[in-house]
Design brief:
The chain is α/β, with parallel strands linked by helices. It has two domains: about 180 residues, Rossmann fold (3-Layer(aba) Sandwich); about 70 residues, no CATH class. It contains eight helices and ten strands. It has a six-stranded mixed β-sheet, sandwiched between helices. The protein is globular. The two termini are about 40 Å apart. The structure holds adenosine-5'-triphosphate and magnesium ion (MG). The site of magnesium ion has 2 residues, from α1. The site of magnesium ion (MG) has 2 residues, from α1.
């Protein structure tokens, strides 16, 4: 199985701003991703998750430190890595099957490969269509597919060239809750079958815990690693895991870290502040503010 090993050593990244000093987005990030690992990054909006992933994809440069992928410094994108984004980004003029084969067909043209190579590629794309439950939709166009189906095509396309590293930036963020659950089981199955190293970004802590071997909690201003949590759930998982006390305890712990590091106020704190503000504005007491914990 082809699996990548990743090593970030004190990687820093700033973005220039017009009339302000540069914005430090990643501050000396050090992190190792083991071959075959499923690593999930979580953290408040703006803490640098996508930037970290884009650097790993070779789509963004970093300023300081070192990023080593399978023993080599990363200087740009490569066929060893594939990325899946939140928005499906399929080619609307190609069928499902041709979307999946597209990169391989380009390679055949570019590298002057033989018809045998094309046949091998067809075998792979057919197998991926089956794996993704898309065989019946092979000749559909993207506008004939649901969001979940489109994202399955995008994942199949990313897997087509057998990447050693699959990078996913909130890939299920636009899907409804039921479709997300199906996608979670599917992506775990794919991970076990293909053995690819996966680095996955999400806002959703439950998703992170269900999918990952480890969860990295990032903190903002400047973007950095706050903590890393080893998940003790083993490789076989089912949806009932999400209601076990162990799962819920880790979920609570991570949510707490995200709140603390981002300086986010809870709903209750915000409501109290709002009540005080209204009280001082109107001279009266605001009745009955809602009480509740945010999950
Ligand atoms: N190309 C860019 N130029 C300038 N600033 C940028 C650029 N890309 C990102 N930033 C800034 O860098 C910070 C981190 O952005 P990034 O997209 O990595 O965060 P994120 O953790 O992925 O957030 P979200 O959860 O909202 O997707 C943000 O403050 C963002 O405004
Ligand atoms: Mg992002």
């Amino acid at each position: 199985m082809a699996q990548s090993e990743v090593q970030f050593d004190a990687v820093s990244k700033s973005f220039a701003r017009r009339s302000e000093p540069p914005l430090l987005v990643l501050d000396r990030v050090s992190l190792r991703v083991a071959p075959g690992e499923f690593l999930v990054l979580v953290g408040a909006s703006g803490c640098g998750k996508s930037t970290l992933l884009r650097i790993l994809a070779g789509l963004e440069r970093y300023d300081d430190g070192r990023l080593i992928l399978d023993g080599q410094p990363v200087h740009g994108p490569g066929a060893d890595r594939a990325m899946v984004f939140q928005h499906y980004s399929l080619y609307p003029w190609l069928t499902v099957k041709d979307n999946i084969r597209f990169s391989r067909q380009l390679k055949v043209v570019r590298d002057n490969l033989t018809s045998n190579d094309v046949e091998v590629a067809s075998g792979r794309s057919d197998a991926l269509l089956q794996l993704m439950g898309l065989a019946h939709a092979a000749d559909y166009y993207p506008n004939q597919l649901s969001g979940g189906m489109q994202q399955r095509v995008a994942i199949a396309r990313a897997l087509m060239n057998r990447p050693k590293l699959l990078l996913m930036d909130e890939p299920f963020g636009a899907l409804d809750a039921q479709t997300r659950e199906v996608m979670h089981d599917l992506i775990r199955h794919v991970h076990q079958l293909e053995g690819t190293t996966i680095v996955f970004v999400t806002h959703d802590v439950e998703e992170a815990l269900y999918l990952g071997d480890r969860v990295v909690v990032m903190a903002p201003k400047p973007g950095r690693i706050d903590s890393v949590v080893d998940l003790p759930f083993g490789r076989r998982r089912d949806q009932d895991l999400k209601i076990t006390p162990e799962f819920l305890a880790i979920k609570r712990q991570i949510l707490q870290r995200i709140r603390e590091t981002s300086g986010m106020k809870t709903d209750l704190e915000q409501l109290e502040q709002l009540s005080k503000h209204l009280e001082s504005a109107t001279g009266s007491t605001v009745m009955n503010t809602a009480q509740g914990d945010i999950a």
